TrEMBL record:
GO terms for molecular function: UDP-glucose 4-epimerase activity. The keyword Nucleotide-binding does not apply. This is UDP-glucose 4-epimerase. InterPro entries: NAD(P)-bd_dom (IPR016040), NAD(P)-bd_dom_sf (IPR036291), UDP_G4E (IPR005886). Pathway: Carbohydrate metabolism; galactose metabolism. Homodimer. It is an enzyme of class 5 (isomerase).
Length: 338
C-alpha cells in the first residue's frame, strides 16, 4: 500500500518513513528541501534497507500537487508533515507561514476529496491549548487564542480538516504533539536545525559539542518545583510509531468519528533543569548554562493526559527522557564528526 509522506525528509517525517517501511508500507515522500537534505534518504535506506520514492515538490504550487496525484493515483493515505515550524520566524513573517502551512494543506485536501475515500493524518501541536488550566492536558481542553502565526496555522489547519471531512470522503486524525526530541537509535537520522537552534534539546547537544558557548535557561521563577518551565518531551521514535498506528486505524476503518484527535506525549512533565541533568548523565559532560529572563510567549507547563491515545489508539510512549537525550547526543556527535 502506497503512503504519501509530505515533509518526509524532516525530523519527525523521516522517522515516520522508517516506521512505515518497517511495517511494510511503500512510501513516497514529497519534500521541497527548504529545511531538509536529500542525504536523509540514505539514512532511511541504511536503517530499513529500502529506498522510499521521492519527489521534490513545493506544495504551494497547486499544479504540481495535481500532477503528483495524477502520477501516483494509487496513494492510499497521506501523512502531512510539510510545514514551517519556527515560532519566532512566524511572528516576523506571518504571510510566509499562512501561505506555506495553509495553502499546502488546502491543495492536498482538494486532490484527496476527488478520491472515493482518503485517510489523512495531520501534524498538530499542543500549542493549540496555550497555557491550559488543568494538567495533564486532555483532548477536550479548550483551544485558546494562538500566541503566534505558527500556532494559528495549526488551529486553522485543524478547522479546515474538520470542515472538509464533514462534506467529503476524507477521514482524518489530528495528532497534537507535545515536545518531540531524540533521534533514531542507529544515529542514521535525527534533527538538523538550520542556524542557531530555537528548541531546547538541539541547543543542549550543540552546546555539548562546543558549537555554542552556553545554554540560556529561560526563566527560573516559574511556579514549578525547581522554577524552570515544564514540558512533555516525547522520543521521536515513539511519536513516529503513533503515526503508523493512527494511519492503520483509518485504513482499517476503525475510527469512530470522521475526524479524531489525539495527544501524543509521555504523560510526564520535565523541567528545563531536569532535561539538562538527563543530558549530563547520559553524556557524562557538565553542561554550561546561565539563567536568563523568561522567553516571551513561553508557557509555564504543558504535559499530556495520554489516556485517549493509550486506550483508543492503543499506543503508549515506551522510551524515556534519558533514552531520548542519549540518542540526540549520539546523533549530534555523528553529524559533527562527519
Ligand atoms: C515550541 C513551540 C511549539 C512547537 C515546538 C516545536 C510555542 C509556545 N512553542 O515549543 O508550538 O511545536 O516548539 O518543537 O509555540 N528553553 C530554554 N533555553 C533554550 C531553548 C528553550 O530554556 O535555549 C526552554 C523554553 O523556555 C521552554 C523549554 O525550554 O521552557 C522548551 O522549549 P522549546 O524546545 O523551544 O519548545 P516549546 O517552546 O515548548
Amino acid at each position: 500500500m502506497k503512503i504519501l509522506v509530505t515533509g518526509g525528509l524532516g525530523f519527525i517525517g523521516s522517522h515516520t518513513v522508517v516506521e512505515l517501511q518497517n511495517e511494510g508500507f511503500e512510501v513516497v515522500i514529497i519534500d521541497d528541501l527548504s529545511n531538509a537534505s536529500e542525504d536523509v534518504i540514505q539514512g532511511i535506506v541504511n536503517i530499513t534497507g529500502k529506498k522510499p520514492l521521492f519527489e521534490k515538490i513545493d506544495l504551494r504550487e497547486k499544479a504540481a500537487v495535481k500532477d503528483f496525484f495524477k502520477k501516483y493515483n494509487d496513494v492510499a493515505g497521506v501523512i502531512h508533515f510539510a510545514a514551517s515550524k519556527a515560532v519566532g520566524e512566524s511572528v516576523e513573517n506571518p504571510l510566509l507561514y499562512y501561505e506555506n502551512n495553509i495553502s499546502s494543506l488546502v491543495y492536498l485536501l482538494q486532490e484527496l476529496k476527488e478520491k472515493p475515500e482518503a485517510s489523512f493524518i495531520f501534524s498538530s501541536s499542543c500549542t493549540v491549548y496555550g497555557q491550559a488550566e488543568k494538567m495533564p492536558i486532555t483532548e477536550d481542553a479548550p483551544v485558546q487564542a494562538a500566541m503566534s502565526p505558527y500556532g494559528n496555522t495549526k488551529q486553522i489547519g485543524e478547522e479546515i480538516i474538520n470542515d472538509t471531512a464533514k462534506v467529503t470522503n476524507i477521514s482524518a486524525i489530528l495528532l497534537r504533539y507535545f515536545n518531540p526530541v531524540g533521534a533514531h537509535p542507529s544515529a542514521e537520522i535525527g534533527e538538523l536545525p538550520l542556524g542557531v537552534p530555537q528548541n531546547l534539546v538541539p541547543f543542549i547537544t550543540q552546546t555539548g559539542m562546543g558549537l555554542r558557548q552556553e545554554l540560556s535557561v529561560f526563566g527560573n521563577d516559574y511556579p514549578t518545583p525547581d522554577g524552570t518551565a515544564v514540558r512533555d518531551y516525547i522520543h521521536v521514535v515513539d511519536l513516529a510509531k503513533a503515526h503508523v498506528i493512527a494511519l492503520q486505524r483509518l485504513l482499517n476503518k476503525k475510527n469512530v468519528q470522521k475526524v479524531e484527535t489525539f495527544n501524543l506525549g509521555t504523560g510526564t512533565g520535565s523541567s528545563v533543569l531536569e532535561v539538562i541533568h538527563s543530558f549530563e548523565k547520559v553524556s557524562d559532560k557538565k553542561l554550561p548554562y546561565i539563567i536568563k529572563p523568561r522567553r516571551e510567549g513561553d508557557i509555564t507547563e504543558a504535559y499530556a493526559n495520554t489516556d485517549k491515545a493509550n486506550n483508543v489508539l492503543g499506543w503508549k510512549a515506551q522510551l524515556t527522557l534519558d533514552e531520548a537525550m542519549s540518542s540526540a547526543w549520539e546523533w549530534e556527535q555523528k553529524v559533527r564528526n562527519k
